[in-house]
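Long-time lurker. I teach an intro course on protein structure, and each term I like to show students one example going from raw sequence to a predicted 3D structure in C-alpha cell notation. This year I'd like something fresh instead of my usual example. Would anyone be willing to generate the C-alpha cells for the chain below so I can use it in lecture? Attribution to the forum is fine with me.
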Amino acid sequence: MKIVIIGAGEIGYDLASVLSKEKHDVIVLDRDKDSLNKVTENLDVLCHEGNATSAKDLVDAGVKEADITIAVTSIDEVNMIASMLSKRLGTQMVIARIRNDELSRPNSPLKPTDLGIDVMIHPELSAAQEIVQLIKRSTATDVINLADDKMQLIGLRLEKNSPLVGKTLSEYAEEFSEITFRVVAIARRGLTIIPSGTVRLQALDQIFVLAQTESIPNVIKTTGKIETEINTIMIAGGTPVGEMVARMLCSQEKSWTIKLIEPDYDIAVELAQDLKDVLVLNGNPTDPDLLATEGISDTDAFISVTDDEESNIISCLMAKHLEVKKTVALVSKSDYIPLSQTIGLDAAINKKSAASNEIHRYVRRGRVISVTALQGIKAEVIELQAAPGSKVVKKPIQKIGFPQGCVIGGIQRNGSVEIATGQSQIKANDRVIVFCLPEAVDKITSLFQ
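-- Reply from a regular --
Happy to contribute to a lecture. Here you go:
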C-alpha cells in the first residue's frame, strides 16, 4: 500500500517507522530538513522536502497515486488544507490529526468530509480518555476496553508479596476456576512473553489479563491488590490533555475533588473561568513546597500532563514518594514507558501510540475492527472479524495453525462475549480478540480473510 505521511514530527516519525516495518511504500513530506534527515537516517522510507499546503509539492510527493494520505503536522490548519488538496488530487483515503474539536461538534457548520477528511484523529483526546479509565481502575497500569466495552484488558504489576508469585498460569487458572479470565501477555525485565500454561509468574512481572468487564474487580483481587477508592485528584498542567481530563472527570457520575496546577497565569485564569468545579492554581507543578502546601500528601491520584515529559516523570516520582496512591505521567518518548514503571510510577500514557492505534485500524481495514499497541511491551491487541470462508471458522481453536507469538483471547458473537479456550470454535462474522507480537500481525490477519 502506498502511504504519504505529511509531517515528520514525533507522530509522523512513529507512524513511518511502524508502517515501513509492515512493508508499506511510505513517503514522508515535510519542509524541515533536520526532521527529514532524522527520518532518512533511521528508517527505510522515501522523504520529500516541501510545503504541505502546496499542490505542486503534494503531487511531487505522490498523493495522486496514494492509497492513504496521513496529515499529522502540529498545525490544524495545515492538516486541513493538505487534506483538502490531497483528496482533490486523487488520494483514496485521507486521515488527519485535528486538535480543535469544533469539526466534531454536532452543530458545526463544516463536517470533516467537507475538507476531504475521511478519518479525523485526536491523540490528546485519546490520551485523556485513557487517563480517566486508569483513574477508575486505581490498581491497573493499563486499561483497554474491547468488544463494545463488554471486555476489558488490564495491566497489573505483581508485587513481591503477591500470592501469584511462583505459580504457573495453569495453577493460577485452576485456583480461581470460578472466574473466567486469561493472561494474554507478560512484560518481564524488558522482554515480552506471549505465555503458555507452563510459564511461572515472577515478582515484578507486569501481567495483562483479559476478562469480562464485570469480572475485572475479582481478577484484581487474585493478585493480592485492593482497589483503593480515589476521591481527590491533582492535575499538573493545563495543557489540552489536562483540560480534557478535568472536563471528563467533572462529567462523571462520581464527584471528585479536583485541583489543577498551571504555571502560565493567563491560561490558569482562562481555565478557572471555564472549569467551574475545578480549583485552578497558578504555580510550578514541580515545586515541592507548592505541592505540599496544596495537600499532595492527602491526594489520592496525581496526574502530570505538562508539555515537559521529564517534569511529568519527576513530579509523579515526588508524588509517589509522598505516598500518593495513583500516579499517571504523560510521556512522548516510547523508550520512557518501560523505564517509568521500573522506577516506581503507576502508569505512563503516550499520545503517539494513541494516534498510531487509531490510524492502524484504517490502514489495515478489511476484517480488522481495531488495533491497540500495549504500552511498554512489544505486543498488539487486534479485534478481527472472521470472514465466512476463512481458515479460522468451523474448527476448534486448538486445531487451527496459528502463527507463533499470538494467542486468541476472546470471542464476541450476537452481543455476548466469552473467553476463548482450545475447544472454542470461531463462527463466520464472529469478532475475535487476538494478542500477538508485531511480526505475527500480518499472518494472523490473513487467516481471518
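Some talking points for your students: The longest strand covers residues 181-188. The longest helix spans residues 76-89.
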